[in-house]
Amino acid sequence: MKTALIQQPFNIDKETTRAKTVEMVSKAAQLGAELVVLQELHQGPYFCQYESTDLFGLAEGYEEDIVFWSEIAKKDSVVLVTSLFEKRAPGLYHNTAVVFEKDGSVAGKYRKMHIPDDPGFYEKFYFAPGDLGFEPIDTSVGRLGVLVCWDQWYPEAARLMALRGAEVLIYPTAIGWFDADSEDEKRRQRDAWITVQRGHAVANGLPLIAVNRVGFEKDKSGVLDGIRFWGSSFVCGPQGEIIAQASEEKEEILFCDIDLARSEEVRRWWPFLRDRRIDAYEGLLKRFID
Amino acid sequence: MKTALIQQPFNIDKETTRAKTVEMVSKAAQLGAELVVLQELHQGPYFCQYESTDLFGLAEGYEEDIVFWSEIAKKDSVVLVTSLFEKRAPGLYHNTAVVFEKDGSVAGKYRKMHIPDDPGFYEKFYFAPGDLGFEPIDTSVGRLGVLVCWDQWYPEAARLMALRGAEVLIYPTAIGWFDADSEDEKRRQRDAWITVQRGHAVANGLPLIAVNRVGFEKDKSGVLDGIRFWGSSFVCGPQGEIIAQASEEKEEILFCDIDLARSEEVRRWWPFLRDRRIDAYEGLLKRFID
Is domain A2-285 annotated with CATH 3.10.129.10? Predict the structure, then answer.
């Protein structure tokens, strides 16, 4: 599965940023990519750094966005994983990954299920928790387990996609550092982010794609300085082995040829799904067991 | 929590191996360890390389083993995590971690829940699946989430221990390479083993201790050459950061001072437990969802 990950900074406004994305998707397609994955909320800034009712306006374009990216997928004949701000009804919004087929049709969508809320990442204000569950999306290149950002810290999400037959796990993401953090703390955070996802690949015997944004985005509220997104988009194989990784600071297209057949081989050696103790997992349905 | 991991090869017979373990536990205690963790089935060879009814005889000493290790824990005044071959009833055996308190009393036990069965690791023949669930064990040094080897590939096991209030995850282990594997494959396997466990630490905001055996053990059945256990025992913190790691080939006591209070700090930054979608996890109780 010839794959391209588009890692880029937000640039001035939606039109300029989108134009750059379109150019990169087109280049990726020309160089043979069949699957192209974009980063989280790739059309605009990471607007969740502060809470403002005005910013819901960014979701007004959702229907037009669907048409727009559908045309790009069709023009370049690629399966395209986008990440959009969905307006579903007045006052009801989601953080939604929409996957387009090579002919421009919508293959499926996934509404982010786990919603974070930390200083600088006020997503619970903007996004209602997803209600489509953890359902893989069938496409001409494979059955895609599309999840979004905060989901990547949850083994449950990856496992449910695997149990529903996903052939690859895919995470559009927006994560970065605060410049005020120590270098040690920054390393620990980035390593933890890579490690937990590689762990999902291992536990499920699946390849995994994570696409993160890059560059600095100022906190316009002035409360914090802003977030420096750490890039580092990567692809790992079903043993968690890194097979491609982008830089921490640069805009780039990361190409990777993913061998979906390898999962069968790895799962024969490490048949983890066989031995799950489903008779003893009921506690997983509780918040805490006390 | 001053901790010592005892990584050692099987040496000639039970008595010789045990004498060495006792010496190392004593040394660890003298140097300040309050918690000492032994590797999987540390009293003997890793006997599951082939299936033989005679080998159930190794479990006949279980009651005596309990007395033996109780006395060691008491003598050295340490909390001691052992891994024993339990005879529970005629024809019924478990792979059981028994934890002793500093006064020699049994703090609790854990019967291995996930049982592997691969060429060279015929554990389903020897061990009935555990029936004590994923329950942490309270001790004077903390609430210990003791799991065993194959469990380490299952995020469900780590999560359940965390949900039941474990303060640290602990894995006595016996894992190694076949010499015939390529160097690349060996690296991938060892890295996957480390990565998936570090992932559990990250996902649950808990420190983690893994103690693996070391050295080569011949397959006496002659079917395979044998297993070269890769050591590499390690401790990581609640962001998955490695804080101590042993060699791949040497017998050693690995010391590590674990700060249990750090989990509270890390979980405030990364409050993963808060956002779990327990309304959408029911599929985890199924073998596969088709």
Answer: no
Render pLDDT for B95-144 as a digit per residue (tens, 0 to 9).
Answer: 999 999 999 999 999 999 999 999 999 999 999 999 999 999 999 999 99
pLDDT in tens, B13-35: 999 999 999 999 999 999 999 99
Q: Choose from B121, B152, B154 for mutation: most chain A CBs within 10 A.
A: B154
Instruction: Give the per-residue pLDDT at B82.
Output: 98
Three-state DSSP class for residue B102 = coil
Q: Please list the rounded mean pLDDT of every run of 10 residues in chain A (290 residues).
A: 98 97 98 98 97 97 98 98 98 98 98 96 98 98 98 98 98 96 97 98 98 97 95 98 98 97 96 98 98
Q: What's the CA gap between B67 and B243, in Å, rounded?
A: 33
Number of CB pairs, chain A paired with chain B, less than 8 A apart:
177
How many angstroms away from the CA of A74 is the closest CA of chain B? 31
Question: 3-state class of B42 per DSSP?
Answer: coil
Q: Which of B91, B82, B83 is nearest to B57 (CA)?
A: B91
Output helix, strand, coil percentages for chain B, rounded to the nearest 5. 35, 30, 35
CA–CA min distance A103, chain B (Å): 28
At residue B30, the pLDDT reads 98
Helix B155-163 / helix A155-163 crossing angle, nearest 10 deg: 140
Pick from A197, A256, A177, A269: nearest CA to A3: A256
Cβ distance of A159 and B289 shorter than 8 Å: no
Report CB contact under 8 Å: A113, B192.
Answer: no
Which residue on chain B is closest to A163 by alpha carbon?
Answer: B288
Domain ranges of chain A: 2-285
Whole-number pLDDT of residue A286: 98
Instruction: Write down the pLDDT at residue B192.
Output: 98
